[in-house]
Amino acid sequence: MSMTDADLAAHLAHVAGRILLHVRDSGIFSAKALGKAGDQTANQFLVHALREQRPDDGLLSEEMQCDGTRLDHQRVWIIDPVDGTREYGEARTDWAVHVALAIDGVAQTGAVALPGLDLVLRSDRPTPLPAAAAIPRMVVSRTRPAKEAVDVAQAIGAELLPMGSAGAKAMAIVRGEAEIYLHTGGQYEWDSCAPVAVAAAHGLHVSRVDGRPLVYNQPDSYMPDLLICRPEWAERVLTIVWETRAPAA
Predict the structure, then answer these.
(1) Does the pLDDT value for residue 148 go beyond 60?
(2) Which CATH number fits domain 137-245: 3.40.50.360, 3.30.70.330, 3.30.428.10, 3.40.190.80?
(3) Engineering a disulfide at 9: which of 99, 106, 117, 182 sits with its beta carbon 3.0 to 4.6 angstroms away?
(4) Biological process GO terms, please (predicted)?
(5) Whole-prediction pTM
């Protein structure tokens, strides 16, 4: 019997994560070569598995040149074999594997594996959100925090939590480790599709930073920004971003 889309996404994310750990633990790759080796190995597994299990669906991967055929499909799998290559190579835990299915542009089904924590978070198995912290916590990039995120954090008195991959940041909100993930530094569809599917299923707010919905399987896979946060913070964060971007009178 074939697996459901959700089961398939979770299974593939988990297995790809195990493969990546084995590649890293093999000890045969230099630090410089490890990221590339992990990306290519995990991508090969995911692409072959999806083409075997869902041959009629479209496919978009960070590690595969897009030939445009995905645009003819309503159902498109969007994958990131290693989200946070630097963190993966440094044997940190804030990296992820993303496997998502977008249907008619909506991040419908997703799984985010956090192999360093032996966790897979799924869109079909939402759990209640943990209690929010009294002082909001905001996840930002370890190396290049977006100016608007820093500005919003200052405006609401949030504590900044530097973290690696986009998937790890988004799952920190799902897991109750932070309240807000605001990103304006540019990403691609594979960076956010699976995290957005999982976050939305858990009752979190997901949108562009101007409040518009996130739309996937676009001809240009670049996505300028996103907001994933607890629903009680959405309106205030969106308002602050709008005010910061509004031209002076």
Answers:
(1) yes
(2) 3.40.190.80
(3) 99
(4) 3'-phosphoadenosine 5'-phosphosulfate metabolic process; sulfate assimilation
(5) 0.96
